[in-house]
Structures are given as structure tokens and as C-alpha cells.
């Protein structure tokens, strides 16, 4: 019975397998299977998706927690930073206030007693002389302001002109005018520029501020021979590299000689002059003039101090300048 049943089943299987409807029989089978598979797959995918969603929700929560943590850490550090910033900005405000005060004092020509004492030590002027020189500074600065205003109202490029760039001190134009008219210095543009730049030994910056103006004037009018020589050296060292080279000498001496139209090489004479002057100044024979060379030479022969062009006031100009101070 069992066998027969088995046989029948086998027959039926065989029949089903061998029958023409085999294709039919097989065909519907895989389809639902595929369907099932698909559904099953879908379900499992869905399950995976759900799990993934759960995970992603969890991870999102995690991430938000982390973000919150980060934010609170950030806020805490921000608070610390803002405390620091508050301190820093208070210091900056105080510094700005001091600068403003200093600027106002400068512009009004007023010197506070501490600065006056400081300047008296740094310069060779008396208190009264310093007062008088501050008054001149104030006048020159107001000239600069006036010039700046005139320039900005008459010039079409007014927007480019920064008025405050010219009002904070003595600018080139006023300085040049002063050297010409007050100190009898008639010199080339290149030297004038170098005198302006070398004036302020402390390098406070340009335009010239009150302190730079006074210290520069002190060297200019009352400087020791060594101070004056060092000033001239700074002027002649055109590129401020610490040496006066042959090229710089050539530039400085170029216009000393009157050129003869019949000269084949008009620079020949200047080159010869450069060689002669170099021989005189170059004490250590390295082909250029250092500060030591210059100071040594000028100490031995004081008249050579302005060998490369006039950059100091004449004695009579100094005398008449002090007489106009009326102190
Ligand atoms: Ca140089
Ligand atoms: Ca040398």
C-alpha cells in the first residue's frame, strides 16, 4: 500500500513531469515562487529597511545628541572665549583711547608733562624750545590739513585721497617747503625724499609725527658731529641696506659735474669721481662704504660730511631759525 501509494505518487509525478502540461505545470510553479520570492524578498527588504530606519533614527538621535553636546561645548567655550574677547576688546578700546588722546594732544600741540620730560631727554632742546617747536609743528600740521582739504575739494579723485592720511603729521610737500625756505637746503628730489625718510631716527612712520619731528630737528640743528654724520649716512644709503655702494654714489654724484657736450661718454667723469671718493671713504677696502667707513672718514675730515650732497642746514640758517623761535 505504501509502495503503491509511493508508486502512484511517482507515477503522478512522472505523469505530471512527462505530460504535455509539463510546461504548464512547471510554468505556474516558478512564477508564484518568483512572486513569493519577490514578496519574501520585499518583506525581508522591508524588514531590513525598518531595521535600517531604526538604526538611522537611532544614529540620527545619536548624532543630534553629539551635535547638542558639541554645541554646548562650543557655547561653553564661546562663553570662555567671549570673556577673553571682552578682556581683549577692553584692552584694545583702552589702547585706541590712548592713541586718540595722544593724537589729540599732538594736533593741539599740547604736550603732557610726562611726554615733555621724555622729549627733553631725547632731544637737545629746552622746555621752552620744545614748546615753541610744538607750536611750529601744529602750524605745519594745519598747513597739511589745509593742503589736504584744498586737494580733496579741487581734485576729481577726491575719493582716492584719504584726508586722514595727510592730517596726522607733516607730509612731504610741507617738509620740502620747510627745508627750502627755512633751512636753505636746495637739493635734488631724491635727496629731499631721503632726508624726509631719514629724519625720524625712531622710525615712527610717515608722515612725520610730533616725536619724530622733534628728534629729527634735534639732530639736524643741535646734533653732535657723530649724530649728524650718521644722519647723512642714512640719507646717502639710498636703499637702506647699510652700505653706500658705487651705484648709489653714481646716482648721488651724477649731477655734480657739468657735462661737456663734446664728451664722448658724459658719465666718464662721474665714474672717475666715484672712484676717487670711494678711495677716500672705503677704509676697509671692500668696495663699498659702511657706516664705520663713513664715520671714520668724516671724523678725520669733517668737511666730507656732505660729500654726496647737501642734507644739513647752513650755519646761518640754524642761527636765524633759533632767533625766530623767540625763546
Ligand atoms: Ca645702499
Ligand atoms: Ca668699506
Automatic annotation (TrEMBL):
The keyword Calcium applies. Keywords: Calcium, Metal-binding, Repeat. SMART domains: EFh. The keyword Repeat applies. One of its GO terms (molecular function) is calcium ion binding. Residues 44-59 have a biased composition (Low complexity). Residues 14-25 have a biased composition (Gly residues). Gene3D superfamilies: EF-hand. CDD domains: EFh (cd00051). Coiled coil: none annotated. Residues 1-59 are annotated as: Disordered. PANTHER family: CALAXIN, CALCIUM BINDING PROTEINS. This is EF-hand calcium-binding domain-containing protein 1. It comes from Drosophila lebanonensis (Fruit fly).
Amino acid at each position: 500500500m505504501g509502495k503503491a501509494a509511493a508508486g502512484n505518487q511517482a507515477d503522478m509525478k512522472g505523469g505530471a513531469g512527462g505530460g504535455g502540461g509539463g510546461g504548464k505545470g512547471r510554468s505556474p510553479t516558478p512564477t508564484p515562487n518568483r512572486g513569493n520570492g519577490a514578496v519574501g524578498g520585499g518583506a525581508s527588504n522591508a524588514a531590513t529597511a525598518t531595521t535600517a530606519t531604526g538604526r538611522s533614527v537611532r544614529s540620527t538621535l545619536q548624532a543630534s545628541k553629539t551635535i547638542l553636546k558639541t554645541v554646548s561645548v562650543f557655547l561653553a567655550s564661546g562663553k570662555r572665549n567671549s570673556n577673553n574677547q571682552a578682556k581683549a576688546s577692553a584692552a584694545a578700546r583702552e589702547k585706541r583711547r590712548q592713541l586718540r588722546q595722544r593724537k589729540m594732544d599732538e594736533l593741539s600741540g599740547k604736550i603732557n608733562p610726562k611726554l615733555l620730560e621724555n622729549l627733553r631727554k631725547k632731544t637737545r632742546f629746552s622746555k621752552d624750545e620744545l614748546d615753541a617747536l610744538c607750536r611750529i609743528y601744529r602750524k605745519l600740521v594745519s598747513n597739511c590739513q589745509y593742503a589736504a582739504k584744498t586737494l580733496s575739494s579741487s581734485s576729481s579723485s577726491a575719493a582716492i585721497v584719504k584726508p586722514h592720511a595727510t592730517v596726522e603729521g607733516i607730509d612731504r610737500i610741507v617738509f620740502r617747503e620747510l627745508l627750502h625756505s627755512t633751512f636753505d637746503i636746495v637739493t635734488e628730489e631724491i635727496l629731499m625724499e631721503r632726508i624726509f625718510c631719514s629724519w625720524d631716527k625712531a622710525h615712527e612712520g610717515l608722515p612725520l609725527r610730533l616725536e619724530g619731528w622733534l628728534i629729527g630737528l634735534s639732530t639736524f640743528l643741535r646734533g653732535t658731529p657723530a649724530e649728524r654724520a650718521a644722519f647723512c649716512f642714512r640719507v646717502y644709503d639710498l636703499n637702506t641696506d647699510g652700505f653706500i655702494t658705487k651705484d648709489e654714489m653714481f646716482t648721488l654724484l651724477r649731477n655734480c659735474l657739468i657735462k661737456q657736450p663734446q664728451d664722448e661718454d658724459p658719465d666718464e667723469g662721474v665714474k672717475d669721481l666715484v672712484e676717487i671718493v670711494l678711495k677716500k671713504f672705503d677704509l676697509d677696502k671692500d668696495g663699498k662704504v659702511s657706516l664705520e667707513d663713513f664715520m671714520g672718514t668724516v671724523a678725520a675730515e669733517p668737511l666730507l660730511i656732505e660729500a654726496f650732497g647737501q642734507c644739513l642746514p647752513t650755519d646761518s640758517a640754524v642761527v636765524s631759525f633759533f632767533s625766530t623761535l623767540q625763546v
